[in-house]
Design goal:
45% strand, Jelly Rolls, 1 helix, 121 residues, Fe2OG dioxygenase domain-containing protein
Length: 121
């Protein structure tokens, strides 16, 4: 809980070091491990193609574009589960994804992620 309170509702640098910021909104380990972030992409930010491996299970992420950039900032995913102009559902552990360089204005995304454990056989 202390770790959550240190990070929640505070802007932090994104993992890739490419200019985006993230704010942890809510997270839990049980009953379903999940996290939710507000992500801010200022002009000039971009994310190169990558995957986000998990130790076990299947990682899912639902991104909802709250404010699109006037130019650039497009989400690119090789094999999304579902995609529309503002909603992106994909497997970040299994699908290479990226965000093109934000050029026109900042971009904001609500990102919800969860991991489903592998089924026992």
């Amino acid at each position: 809980m202390r770790d959550y309170l240190k990070k929640a509702f505070r802007w932090q640098r994104g993992r890739q070091g490419t200019g985006y910021d993230k704010m942890l909104l809510l997270t839990a380990r049980w009953p379903l491990p999940f996290d939710s972030y507000l992500i801010r992409y200022p002009v000039g930010a971009q994310i190169p193609p990558h995957t986000d491996p998990v130790q076990a299970g299947r990682h899912y992420r639902l991104n909802i574009v709250l404010k699109a950039s006037r130019a650039g900032g497009e989400f690119v995913c090789a094999t999304p589960i579902y995609t529309s102009r503002r909603v992106k559902l994909f497997r970040p552990d299994a699908c290479e994804h990226s965000v093109t360089r934000v050029e026109g204005s900042s971009r904001y995304v609500l990102s919800l992620g969860w991991v489903l454990k592998a089924q026992a056989r």
